[in-house]
Design a protein that fits this description.
By secondary structure, chain A is mostly beta strands. Chain A has one helix at residues 2-15; strands at 45-56, 61-72, 86-96, 101-110, 116-119, 124-127, 130-134, 139-144, 148-156, 161-162, 169-170, 178-195, 198-213, 221-231, 236-244, 254-258, 264-268, 273-276, 280-282, 289-291, 294-298, 303-308, 315-316, 324-335, 338-349. In chain A, the strands form 3 sheets. In chain A, strands 1, 2, 3, 4, 5, 6, 7, 8, 9, 10, 11, 12 and 13 form a 13-stranded antiparallel beta sheet that branches. In chain A, strands 14, 15, 16, 17, 18, 21, 22, 23, 24 and 25 form a 10-stranded antiparallel beta sheet that branches. Chain A has a two-stranded antiparallel ribbon with strand order 19-20. The two termini of chain A are 19 Å apart. Classes of the chains: A mainly beta, B alpha+beta.
């Protein structure tokens, strides 16, 4: 399994065209919405990440992830719809937290004659029958796999949060080691989940990340840990730390805090600590060892909390790209003297293999 | 009891069998050859046309449904299917042929979506995951091949696709997991679409549906969302359709092989009869010693069974050898007429072994039953009487003749019964009845002719001839069986010869009207029943501009499936300029009139085989799925055609372009201006076509090519006939030998009375010659009637071709003379045996 993964990774890297045809993420970028929700073909890699925690009326908890990737291959103009300008990948995962089962699947396509693509005019981003519709008043996501499926309506509760500073989210030292990154940190979510023919009506909150860049990680980085949390007091937090191959954390790790009114505050690496706190879980498939308990402290916000997960195996094992752990988590801690509670999603990449991809998530 | 019977069996059967090894071997060989032919046809039929998959069934994976349309499926449907909110897997394909240069080998060319295949679980997923694949995803010259075409990655191959030669680089080998048998070239769908010129369309979309709630549910659900212009069928239905089309072909072939067996049956019957006659004394003895009739009957049936078992055993390897040859001939036919396919492996299944034994033992025992019954009925006293005379049972000549007349009438009725499930079952019943009638009429023929001939023969050839003809008339039953065997073989040869000859002549005449142009162009590469390569669209216009060219007309064809059977959808330039004396249409209307009607709207003409297969007539309406929509065409007429068994639906070119806008042509016909020089124009066309690899044929060349294809098609038929004749001639030799052995006493007596060795030889050769003549007369007569059945009933019901009756005089005379000569030559060996009999010894035996 592992050798096949490495194999695919190599081929995808080889296949993707020279970065010279694409531009790096540089400071001073100006976002323009709603156009900004869609494709940025000048950048080689782009993704739309939806994660969320939902539950049914009788308390059955689920987590979900639906991600659309675009990877630039060639910018040569061509008339045939089969010409591969971009590869479109997508991941769909469903964590049945109450039922203790993790479902996931992935796919890759070319745009082809309507197979996958991004259509700003129709507000659509799709890969086969997995789709994201971005309308004026809300968004819809659907994903159908063999034995499970999701279909949600998402209503943003907060304005777009531009991550990073000066229009870029720096990932490492040096120009271009950055991405353009924005989030919708609180999306009111309602819809249906289907597992093996059983349908659940669910409600909850979701998080959307949209990033685009051209080769952002530095050579000595091995992966990252990311968390997006929605606290019960209507505030949100995002943190990521870029790890070096030697285990140290890159000083360009950062984050953001969004208050109840939707105002965001940039957090630098010096503003927080985010560290594993045991409870290692070894993937039976990739043999990657993931820390499933984390301690976070943000002194400037007076915050201290612990991250745990209700479902240990939420590793998305991919044959088309690197595998990673991405799962629903619970947050419990203190903000000043108040109790702090929340739900969120934790992403840990670069554990399944020694060398993570520098172009792919 | 059992011991007693075993002793009887040994005395009556085994000992004589061992004593007369030559005769036993001949019977054995006749059985073996007959069974081997049936077995060979069964085996090779399975390999060449039975278990065959269309070569397009390469890399089809484990899909459930397929979407097709005449002229290709609009590619937008791929996206539409992919976006349906159901967990389907969708695999679009380009399917075509490429010719590998310089070898000229035609291989299937498959275009698949290498990106999406990475999502699949089929063998091609491995290809999609190969590092080479994504690197060259946009490279129009990248191909993947089987190891048979290229030993290592990186080698370069020149492929002729449609009319374009191009160098391709092998970027990967098709892995074993993809389970491709034979050669194949795979490209990414984008490159394949470009190479084949199928812009905007794919040839097939394969769909994998979830197991639940069921196949029918998904088929209905998909049918409801797909446009009416596409067909949705279970995957592999093309193979099923081809199989259906080939069913009639195989069935006829099999029946033909049974005729060889029938000839063999006559010979077994003869052999057993002779052996019964020869052992009359022995039978008498064992009967007198208390053996029951049943025991004697059983002994002879057991003997036949032994021949059956041994013959079938021998037939297994023999049939295998014959099948190897037959497969080659058969696959030529299948490729030329039906579909590009690779013959499968010859598989000796338990079924084929069982078939061999059933046929071998069955025929042997059945043919032995009547003579064995006779043997059992021999009264012991008569059999043991001294001074044995030729045993002769009376033949009820007149009763048999009456029965023959009755069977002939029955055959007439059977020939009027329509085909059952596309198979001319009653046509063959009718043929069988005619063979039986002929066999029954032969004793009367033999006795009448020998009586008339004996006086004449004496005058012409002397007293030996008189003796010969008397002897034939004397042993009427034995003679009749021999004549029947040989005449059946001759009848088979004659009837098939007449049918093929008539067909050939019909096709020749038809080509006169069908091929009126001076020059024809088609893409280089081997033609085949299902290959439809195209010529780039601009060439026709460039040729039309050349000096000396009066007109260029374009034919374009697409393979389609109509009501579960393959057919060809074609378009022609409606050119009322040319005109023929003979109409090509059922209505008898001139070409210009039909063409005018054809161009007037959604009208079509269909070929005769199509009309027969689908039971349509002028005035009927055809509905064709043309991708974007389902279109209705009114049949305005039916035309004669011998080029395509699946049948043609012909539209006017502008009508076709309205629905299938691809302007490339499949063939071009060039008419010269009056006075233009053929070779000059041909050279000019060659220059104009410098960018395309096309072949240019003059009118004469294309006709010769047509006839070559025709002859290839019937090669297997000729081979089968040859085998039947061989069986018959061998049988004659065997029978004559047993006659000699049987009549030792008679010949000895003749020698004793002073006859010279040469006279004995002459006597036997005249007998052989007489048998030959009688068989020729009977065979030719029977053959004529059988040919009528073949042409007007069996062919019409299975293939739907109108064939004009025509005597292939030269071929018939040649073949009949050869048979006659072989018959006489077959008498040489027994004649030399008889010559060397020692008269004293022979007479002393008594």
């Amino acid at each position: 399994m592992k050798s096949r993964l490495a194999f695919l990774l190599i081929l995808l890297l080889a296949a993707t065209g020279g970065a010279a045809d694409y531009q790096p993420a540089l400071p001073g970028y100006h976002y323009d919405f709603p156009r900004g929700y869609f494709s940025h073909p000048n950048y080689q890699t782009e993704w739309w990440y939806y994660t969320g925690n939902v539950q049914s009326a009788d308390g059955h908890r689920f987590g979900f992830e639906l991600t659309f990737f675009r990877q630039g291959v060639s910018r040569t103009p061509a008339s045939s719809p089969w010409y591969v300008h971009d590869l479109y990948m997508a991941h769909l995962a469903l964590s049945d937290l109450s039922g203790q089962h993790y479902y996931h699947t992935e796919r890759i396509n070319r745009a082809g004659p309507g197979i996958a693509g991004i259509d700003a005019a129709r507000g659509l981003i799709w890969n086969g029958n997995w789709s994201l519709h971005i309308g004026d008043h809300g968004q819809q996501i659907t994903g159908v796999a063999g034995d499970f499926g999701i279909g949600f309506s998402l209503t943003p509760q907060k304005p777009v949060v531009i991550q990073g500073q000066n229009g870029i989210s720096q990932k490492a030292e040096g120009a271009g080691h950055a991405s353009h990154y924005f989030s919708l940190t609180r999306l009111l979510t309602s819809g249906a989940i289907e597992i093996g023919g059983t349908k659940y009506q669910v409600e909850g909150t979701s998080w959307m990340d949209h990033e685009f860049f051209t080769g952002s990680m530095a050579g000595d980085e091995s992966g990252w840990d990311w968390i997006g949390v929605q606290f019960s007091d209507n505030t949100e937090l995002m943190l990521y730390r870029m790890r070096h191959k030697d285990g140290s954390v890159d000083p360009f790790s950062s984050g953001s805090y969004v208050d109840a009114l939707g105002k965001s505050r940039f957090l630098t690496e010096r503003d927080f600590t985010m560290s594993p706190a045991g409870d290692a879980w070894t993937s039976p498939q990739t043999h990657g060892e993931y820390p499933l308990r984390w301690q976070v402290s943000i002194p400037s916000l007076g915050m201290r909390f612990e991250i745990t997960t209700p479902l240990r195996d939420q590793e998305l094992t991919s044959t088309l790209g690197p595998s990673y752990w991405e799962g629903a988590v619970d947050v419990r801690g203190q903000e000043g003297s108040h109790a702090l509670r929340g739900v969120g999603y934790l992403e840990m990449t670069g554990y399944a293999q020694a060398n993570g991809s520098d172009r792919l998530p | 009891m059992l011991i007693a019977w075993t002793a009887l069996f040994f005395r009556l059967i085994v000992r004589p069998m061992l004593r007369e090894k030559g005769r036993s071997l001949l019977v054995l060989f006749a059985v073996a050859l007959g069974v081997a032919v049936v077995l060979a046809i069964d085996l090779s039929g399975n390999a060449a046309a039975g278990s065959f998959h269309s070569s397009m069934q390469t890399l089809t994976g484990d899909n459930d449904l397929e979407v097709t349309a005449a002229g290709g499926v609009p590619e937008s449907i791929v996206g539409q299917l992919d976006r349906l909110p159901w967990p389907l897997r969708v695999a679009p394909r380009i399917e075509d042929h490429a010719t590998v240069l310089p070898s000229g080998k035609t291989v299937p060319l498959i275009g698949i979506d290498f990106v999406a295949e990475a999502n699949s679980h089929s063998g091609q997923r491995q290809m999609a995951e190969d590092p080479g694949t994504f690197n060259f995803i946009n490279d129009p010259d990248a191909i993947w091949t089987t190891r048979s075409l290229c030993p290592h990655v990186g080698c370069r191959i020149t492929l002729l696709i449609n009319d374009q030669n191009r160098d391709y680089t092998v970027r990967g080998l098709i892995p074993a997991a993809a389970q491709v048998s034979g050669d194949a070239v795979v490209m990414d769908i984008g490159a394949a679409q470009q190479a084949t010129g199928k812009t905007g369309r794919v040839d097939r979309i394969l769909i994998k549906v979830p197991e639940k709630p069921g196949f029918d549910y998904w088929q209905q659900k998909l049918r409801a969302v797909l446009p009416s212009g596409v067909q949705l069928n279970p995957q592999g239905s093309e193979t099923a359709a081809n199989r259906r089309m080939l069913a009639a072909f195989r069935w006829n072939l099999r029946v033909l092989s049974y005729i060889a067996l029938l000839v063999g049956a006559f010979l077994i019957y003869n052999a057993v009869s002779v052996s019964v006659v020869r052992r009359r004394a022995d039978i008498g003895t064992v009967r007198a010693l208390g053996a029951s009739r049943r025991a004697v009957l059983l002994a002879f049936v057991a003997e036949a069974a032994i021949f059956g078992v041994a013959g079938s055993l021998l037939a297994l390897p023999l049939g295998r050898v014959l099948a190897d040859g037959a497969v080659r001939l058969l696959s030529t036919t299948v490729n030329a007429l039906y579909i590009t396919s690779r013959p499968g492996a010859l598989a000796f299944s338990a079924g084929s072994v069982v078939l061999a034994f059933i046929v071998g033992i069955g025929v042997a025992v059945a043919s032995a039953l009547a003579p064995a019954r006779e043997a059992a009925l021999v009264p012991p006293t008569e059999a043991m009487a001294r001074g044995r005379r030729e045993y002769e049972i009376r033949v009820a000549r007149w009763r048999d003749l009456l029965l023959a007349a009755f069977l002939t009438v029955a055959a007439g009725f059977a020939s009027r019964v329509p085909a059952i499930d596309g198979k001319p079952v009653f046509g063959y019943v009718s043929a069988l009845l005619l063979v039986a009638a002929s066999a029954l009429a032969i004793p009367a023929l033999v006795s009448a002719l020998t009586r008339i001939a004996s006086a004449l023969l004496e005058k012409l050839l002397g007293v030996e001839a008189l003796l010969a003809s008397r002897s034939l008339a004397g042993s009427l039953r034995r003679t009749s069986v021999l004549v029947a065997a040989l005449s059946t073989a001759i009848a088979m040869m004659t009837s098939v010869g007449i049918m093929v000859g008539s067909f050939r002549q019909t096709v020749l005449t038809w080509m006169e009207t069908q091929l009126p142009a001076d020059l024809y162009l088609r893409p280089a590469g081997a033609p085949g029943g299902d290959r439809h390569p195209t010529i780039e669209a601009g060439l026709a216009d460039r040729i039309a501009q050349l000096p000396g060219v009066a007109e260029v007309t374009r034919l374009r064809d697409y393979p389609i499936e109509y009501q579960g059977l393959p057919a060809t959808l074609a378009s022609v330039d409606a050119d009322p300029a040319r005109e023929h004396e003979t109409s090509e249409f059922f209505s008898g209307r001139p070409l210009s009139e039909v063409m005018k009607e054809l161009a007037a709207g959604n009208n079509a003409v269909v070929s005769e085989p199509f009309a027969n297969k689908h039971h349509v007539r002028a005035g009927d309406v055809l509905t064709l799925p043309l991708g974007t929509g389902s279109v209705k065409f009114r049949i305005v007429d039916i035309f004669y055609d011998y080029g395509n068994e699946g049948g043609y639906i012909l539209l006017a070119r502008p009508v076709m372009l309205r629905y299938l806008p691809d302007k490339a042509a499949s063939n071009l016909a060039v008419y010269l201006a009056p006075g233009a020089d053929l070779e000059t124009v041909r050279n000019e066309i060659g220059k104009a076509a410098a960018n395309s690899d096309v072949l240019i044929f003059s009118n004469g060349e294309i006709r010769r090519q047509g006839m070559r294809t025709f002859d290839q098609t019937f090669a297997i038929t000729y081979a089968l006939e040859a085998v039947a004749i061989m069986v018959a001639v061998l049988g004659i030799a065997g029978a004559l030998i047993s006659i000699v052995i049987d009549r030792r006493r008679e010949f000895g007596l003749l020698r004793f009375l002073g006859a010279a060795g040469a006279q004995i030889r002459k006597l036997i050769l005249v007998e052989a010659g007489l048998i030959g003549i009688l068989a020729n007369i009977a065979g030719l007569t029977l053959g004529y009637f059988l040919s009528l059945l073949l042409i007007y009933v069996i062919n019409k019901q299975s293939f739907g071709w109108t064939i004009q009756f025509h005597w292939p005089v030269a071929i018939l005379i040649g073949a009949l003379s050869l048979v006659y000569l072989s018959t006489v030559l077959a008498g040489l060996y027994p004649a030399s045996i008889a010559r060397h009999l020692n008269p004293i010894e022979v007479v002393h035996e008594e």
